[in-house]
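User: Can you predict the 3D structure of NADH-ubiquinone oxidoreductase 14.8 kDa subunit? Sequence below.
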Amino acid sequence: MPITPTKYAITTRQSANWSDAKRRVFALYRRWLRSTPEMQSMYSLPLPISVIRTRIRQEFERNRFVNKLPVVDVLLTKGHADYQETMNFWRQTTHMMSYFNEESFRGAKRLPSSFIDGFLQGRN
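Assistant: Sure. Here are the predicted structure tokens for NADH-ubiquinone oxidoreductase 14.8 kDa subunit:
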């Protein structure tokens, strides 16, 4: 299946009011959630779909209390850009796994916290 770069592109625009911004945020959120199974198979993520959806929700909840309309518009533009990059397979699996620190396949502690810990582990 060939990838069309403009398939997921959306024209940047400003929200007219808060109800318009809310509608656009919910539409973007639904797009992310609906594409979760496809993301899991494209990137061969070793995580269940429920964990991926929970992480998407956490990203949206992080910006829940933004109270300036221009800031919401910028966040929407960034969200659409991230969605396009993700669905066009312009990221690597490591980029996707960086969103899941606790489930990361690299491990939580890549480097020892002190010299003696590294020495005892045989890393130095």
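Residues 33 and 80 are 13 Å apart (CA to CA). The chain has one domain: 18-121.
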